[in-house]
User: What shape does this take?
Amino acid sequence: MPKIEVDYRDYFRAVAEALRGAGMLLVSVDRAGRPNAMTIGWAALGPVWGRPAFMAMVRPSRYTYGLIEESGDFTVNLLPKELARVLDFCGSRSGRNVDKFAAQGLTPVPGRKTKSPTVEQAVLSLECRVVGKCDLTSEGLDPDVDRSSYPRGDYHRLYFGEILAVYADPELVGK
Assistant: This one.
């Protein structure tokens, strides 16, 4: 069954479960159009500034950071459980050194509303345009969070991605 455009609000639970579990693939693209996938597990989904939004956290040391800064967009992709190995791979290697799409047999699908592609094998994909960003610092963070999540001070940048479109295979989401 081909993916259809859906309302992001119908998939809160699927996204929350994925983020609590193995994670999701955040995909960005370089200037030449080459995609890169990064596994994410810390994120949020919901309305911000009256817009549907996906808030993704990316450390400046990551290859993905520069790609999002250049492109101004990203996609978020929920893979079926049988592709959990892809999440492990994409979360443990840098796109600076390896073409993760080629290495894992992933197929990029050109974004309909973003420069960044979605992933054909995903059961749910969100196309997002960056509408805001802010850098986390130790100020304002709970000291326990700061100590446990940032022992080296490598704080994330929080990207607010307005969700432009969501595509799903409703029969496969959650399986």
